[in-house]
Amino acid sequence: MENTNNVSSFKRFFSYLIPYKWYFIIAIIFGMIKFLLPVYVAWMFGKIISTLTDDNILIEQKYDSIILLISIGIGLSIITPVFVYFRTILSNTATQKVINDLRVDLFAHVQGLSHSFFDYHLAGSITSRIINDVSLTQVFLKQVIVQSWMHIGVVIVILSYFFTVNWRLAIFSLLLIPIQIIVMKFVGHKIKKVSIDLQEDMAQLSGLTMESISNISIVRVPSSPST
């Protein structure tokens, strides 16, 4: 039952991402280009060394190949900040749009709740849910939606290259993935529990703080003495 509710919640949440999917897709592609540059640099040095040690290649051909590889590397290094800039702009823009839509819909939902709901929930706690809890989705969008898929794409590209070079070593490198998944699942469960408890505590703290401050303005006027 809990898993069904989680799946339903994720579906509702991801429906907010659909209008801005191209923002995220282009940001992921630009991020992949940025992270693949060091891979190209490593490949370039290996190619240069193999070219220099190959006696079957003429000196002029070695020189031309090395100049071409270095020129491509320098060119990519120059344009990489451009990809980083647009990735940041696109991901931040999409994230803020999603958060804005969430806050608007959540506020409209709260406005339609019955009066009994507000009798059992502090105003500060509700405000914390609308502002603070929704702000936490910004971390989720940047780290999960953008960075995770960006890293997955980079890993797929690198593994594809590994399989073309040496499929045995590529399979051996995949043996570490199950260990990482087990560790991440264990740590992620602990982090999720701590995060939920922290959100509850912050909501209670915000509610008590807001109620305490708002009550300061309530002034009890003593009744006038009878004559």
Would you mind describing this structure in some detail?
The protein has 227 residues and is mainly alpha-helical. The protein has a single domain, classed as ABC transporter type 1, transmembrane domain (ABC transporter transmembrane region fold, Up-down Bundle), CATH 1.20.1560.10. The chain has seven helices and no strands. Helix 2 (21-53) packs parallel to helix 5, helix 3 (59-111) packs antiparallel against helix 5 and helix 5 runs antiparallel to helix 7 (176-216).
The ordered string of helix (H) and strand (E) elements is: HHHHHHH
Fraction of residues in H or I helices:
over 70%
Question: CATH topology, what is it called?
Answer: ABC transporter transmembrane region fold
Sheet with the most strands, sense and barrel status: none
Total separate domains: 1
The number of helical segments is 7
- Named at the architecture level, the CATH assignment is Up-down Bundle
Low-confidence stretches: 219-224
CA-based gyration radius: 28 Å
Structural class comes to mainly alpha
> What is the fourth-level CATH superfamily?
ABC transporter type 1, transmembrane domain
- What is the terminal separation in angstroms? 68 Å
Number of strands: 0
Shape: elongated
Residue share in β-strands = under 5%
Instruction: Output mean pLDDT.
Output: 75
Main CATH class:
Mainly Alpha
